[in-house]
Each structure stands twice: as structure tokens, then as C-alpha cells.
Amino acid sequence: MLMTLGGLLEFFLGNTFAFVVFCSFGGFWFTLGSTLTPSFNAYGAYSADPTKPYEGLTSAGFHASYGFFLLFMGLLCLLYLICALRTNIVFVTIFFGLFFTFVLLTSSYWQGAIGHATAAANLQIASGAFAFLACLAGWWIFFAQMLASVDFPFQLPVGDISHVIRSGADRLQDKERFSA
């Protein structure tokens, strides 16, 4: 809920990228929560015994279909990673870590669907390592923004790379200048 609310507040501030990222991850957490909430019975449809809906969580069908949910979150993170190339190293690190987290989780669920429990467990551990990397970068940017908000005497470096890939407006301006 807070990520979605934060996204809406970023919209009012005019931060489109942050708005889209926060709202999409807010939606992710809503979807994850509703999938795992027993009263929604999302996993119960995969159970062979209707009186034991929790068995659906371990079914091959649930694992295979849930892998697709994670796959598309990974693709969304890849889009965010590409967009982050115009911001700073910390955001690139966050989305790099999240992309591989979701790709490895997808692989884990698909391995679980075909009965390879050991491979699924190893892929979950690897995805956790990439998630940890993303979390560390998230805490770094959080601390850097908090220090900047109170005008602290020193700032944490975030690795500004906004100058590496020129903006579309700059390219258009150069094109107009040189064509005249």
C-alpha cells in the first residue's frame, strides 16, 4: 500500500519514472499478497482435493503459472534497468539485481514445476543473493537521499551517469544546430 501511495505522491511531484516504478511494485506486492491469501483461493484452484486448498501451493501447475508472473516482473525490471542507464549507478545496480532476482525466481518455480527440487532450491538461493544486492543498493540511495534532504556536510556518491547517454532533447538540439 505504501509503495502505491509513494508512487502517487511521486506523480504529483512530477517524477514519472519513480511514479511508474513505485506503482508497479505496489501492484506486485498487492498481487503477491492476494495470491497467498487463503480467502482469495488463488492457489486452491490447483489443489486436487478441494478440502485442502493449501496443497495447490505445491502443485506443478501453480509453480509453472506463478513462474510466468515472476518472468514478467523480471521483464519489467529489465525495462527499468534500461531507463536507469540515464540516472546513476545505484539505480542501475538496484534494477540489475531485481532483474536477475526475478529471472532466477522464475527458473526456480519452473524447475519446481518439473520436479527438480534441488535445482529449484539452488536457484532460490541465487535469486536471494541478487535480491540482497538490490537491497544494499536501495539502502545506499535511501541514506544518500536522507543526507541530502537535511543538507548534511557530506554526501554519499551515487555515481551520476546521466551524462553518459545523451538525452533525446540534447540530440535534437544538436541536429537542429548543425542542420542550419
Kindly describe this structure:
- The chain has helices at residues 2-13, 16-36, 60-84, 89-113, 117-149, 168-179.
- With 180 residues, the chain is an all-alpha fold.
- The mean pLDDT is 92.
Concise overview:
With 180 residues, this protein is an all-alpha fold. The chain has helices at residues 2-13, 16-36, 60-84, 89-113, 117-149, 168-179.
Protein traits:
180 residues; mainly alpha; 6 helices
Find the count of extended strands (DSSP E, 2+ residues): 0
Helices and strands, in order, run as HHHHHH
How many helices?
6
What share of the residues does DSSP label as strand, in percent? Answer: under 5%
* Proportion of helical residues: over 70%
Q: Average pLDDT across residues?
A: 92
Please describe the biggest sheet, giving its number of strands, its sense, and whether it closes into a barrel: none
What's the alpha carbon Rg, rounded to whole Å? 21 Å
Q: Runs with pLDDT <50, length 5+? A: none
